[in-house]
Write a structure and sequence with these properties.
Length: 1053
Amino acid sequence: MPPVELPIRTKQIYGRAILLDQLDKALASRSDHPALLLLTGDGGTGKTRILEALLERLEAQQRLYLPIYDFYHIDRFKASAIEETIIRLFSAQRPATEAIFAPYREAQRQLDSARQSGQAFEQAQAHVRQVFVACYNVLAEGEGERPAVLLFDSVEQAVNLYDGAEQRMAQRAPTANGGGEHWLQEMLPQLQNTVAILSGRPQTLYGEPVELYERMRGQMPTQHIPIDGMDRGAADDFARALREKLLDVHQPDIHEFTEAVDLDDETLQLWHSISGGLPFWIAMLFTCTMFGVTPTEVDQIHEQIRAGESPTLDRQAQQRLRDATMRSFLSQIDANDHILILALQWMATIRKGASDAMLQTIAEAEGVPIDNPTTLAERLGQLLIVKRRSVPRYTFDGVAGEETLLFLHDELYHWLDSDVSGAVQLRPAVSRALIEWYDRTIDAAETARIAAVERLLTVGPEHPEAEALNHAQQDHARRRDMLVLDRLGYYYQFDRERGVAEYNMQSYAAIVRREMGYGVMLRQEALRSHYRLDRGVPFAVEVECAARWLLRATYYEDPEGLGLRDRLGFYWEHEAGASGAHYALLHLAVAELLLNRRPEEREAIQRELAAARAIMGRFETTSNPTSNQWRRMLQSRIHNAAGYSYRMTYDLFDATEEYRQALAYGTGSHLALAQLRGETLNNIAYVYSEQGNVAEARRFALEGLDSRQRYASAYNVALSLNTLARISIRAGQFIMAREYAEQALEIFRHYHSSRGMSLCLPVLAEANRKLAEQLSYMISRQEQAFETAMTLFKEAHELLDKAGITSAERRREVIQGIGCTYRSHGQALHIRGVEPDRAASYFAAAHDWLERAVNLAIEKRQPALIVMDIHEDLATIHVNQDEYDERVEIHLQRAEALAPAEYRFERMIGLRGTRRPVYGFWRELAQCEIQRMMLGFGCYDYGIYTRNRASAERTLIRRGDPSDLQEAGRHLLLMLAYILQYAHSSSLLERANALTLRELRRKRTEKEIKLIATAIYQASRDYRLEDSEARRLAERLIDQAFNDLEADSIGEI
């Protein structure tokens, strides 16, 4: 291969001495108010080089300064990234920095705890910004007469990009989520004794004017310095310096090429006329002249100058000659196979910056030998057309920090895209090689993160290693996420459809994980790609952006979220002519919003989900793997939402089927699928628990917890812990339930999540209530547990009002829980035979609260199972007081009437049964039969009364009637039959057996037990239960009662 050389950087800066002195003067004296120096100019004017020269002076003066903060890389976009960089780099210059910014660190920790709620998070963000300003000003004031200096470059890239959806859906002014633009506009004017230098182009890379500059001028004293080309003398010196640099290169043919460039006055005049004194274009003209490929149009102007003419070039003529020059230069690149030229062609695709490892990967993929990739990267970095940028480290090697990557001038990116066939043809292969490199690097970061998580789970949060492990897993996660962001750009470049699908998956997962900042960067990166490749945002992508506004409102608990539904009219108008997966996402987003805020709008929810299903049903598997994964993920989320909708109405069989489908579609290797899988596992666990299958429920819940501990936020881990608490209550494991719920509540409190606490407080309260019921022989502990339960229920009740939570399900659960706690506490006192007045007051309070609960459930059309359960609770109040009158019968009849006929045992028919059972009906019918059994025993032992509703006086009807024992026996059998239909093993069965044996042992005679046994036998025939497990279990209980009777008689001898 022939040796090749291109113009390389000079250490000296030309033609900017006056400007640098002007900047020096502006930085020299204290400023009580922040000052802004705005340097604007087109690409190639040397703005970055001016900042570098200024940086050298600041270093020499030992000033407090922020080295060049370049907004080019997407990770620089975040407000928090700006502040972290300032603190980190100031700390290296002033040791007191960390101590001064201690309040800022604390505010950041509080910010994390507010992440769950969008509105609370925005308020916490604003607080963090203000604390930063306060801490910064303390440090800056300490600099005395020499103000602190902040240098920002590529400011046009700090501008928040917009899409049509944001303009239609946004409800509030941009916040810190607006990234760099918001930070510069809102924070800089508050920084005291500071001079900020902003350097950028007058337009964005997509041709739009940067309006930020004008807004900044209106907010703080600003000196605007347009950066144009060098004057003629400086331009001539620069051209001569380029020639001297190339003459230093130890290659004979380069000497020959360079010496052939005659820098006479006519040539230098020509170059200055065309370049306008811009270093970039002088280098282009030098290169074309050196290789003998000067375009004809330029030669013609050259001849006019040699003839003594002085042609005046307007901007249009100047641009035409520059275009011709660039085409000639690129023709050299396109026709040359030297490794340096090939690397420049590769770099046309490597928009996120090139490292030696990337260059090596691409060379191997292209079959091009590289002796030393580090040397190649160093040579590229010396070229005038290559920019070196400091970016967050994303070549994963386990070390935090930054690295310098190589970028082309943006003009070259544009020209290589459009005019160099070699670079364009290489793009798919180079993009594919880059994606593979990113895949491996992301896997390495994720493997390291998982290892840290595994170790942290093993040693626990109190272990000495815990803090370091937590930092390690956070660092690895951040590296992984930055890699994913960069890879997204290459997905777009390689295959637009794949890029859109990847963006959809990553952004959905980020929303569910409550990663607001990361979601903003994903959006900015995707919009950058669309603006560059499509010159705007396609309509389908805009629809998906609108859907994400709704999803963010749902998952971030935005109180104004429901209003967004009214802003979708424009998109519904266009659905018929533009239907696709993007509209399936929009329908799903509306359904999720309603499920979260208006679950009572069941018809609307089902309508949205049906529309989403219909759209997705038209798609078949494609050859694009990422698109297939996105569609599977979308299908999974639709099934997950449908499952939740069925769960809300207690159609648990259908809910189970939907969740199973969600699990099937949500299986895959993509990280976003892994991050969302835990939610579906948790949901199906809840349904299995309600269906009585506690073992399967616990299995799915633990698997979901394991998944969320590795891939989800702490908030989502708390949701899994809360579900495990519910399952443990259902299993009768109340101490374990309390442990799970306490952990969950601690996390929800950390996040200040009203929704999380409204879910968890009733569960923790119920665990304490159930535990108190078991502590009958530890009275002080029992009293304490009842008190704790009531305190938690009351806190939950106050929270619903304070937070404005309108969910009828949450409110009913709390009100019912308060009523049940009063009832349980009253029963405990009644059993002990102490404080009858207090017990009576608790029973009365229980009745009042449970009446409120049943009225609310009926008013809000809650599922029949819920209403059944409350009526059974109301009946239980009277049974617990040994008050046996028509009130017990009334509530039990109301409860039983709500169970569909196919769930009830009928005389001479037995059980009709159903193919899609909701097992909860059998659970509730079993609990009604428990109370009927207790009613039969109570009527026999204490008597059955009639009650005057006006006077509340009770009149005895009968006591000791054998028919009541027969009724007790009949309901004993039906109780067991319903329980076994619900689950063959359950805490309900254990409780029923214990109550039955307690009543059978209540000084029963042999004759009485035989009477009960006969009733069981007759009932088994009446209800076709002769050969049933229920009858066998009932007979075992009768046998045990006979054995106890015999043992008692022996003991009396």
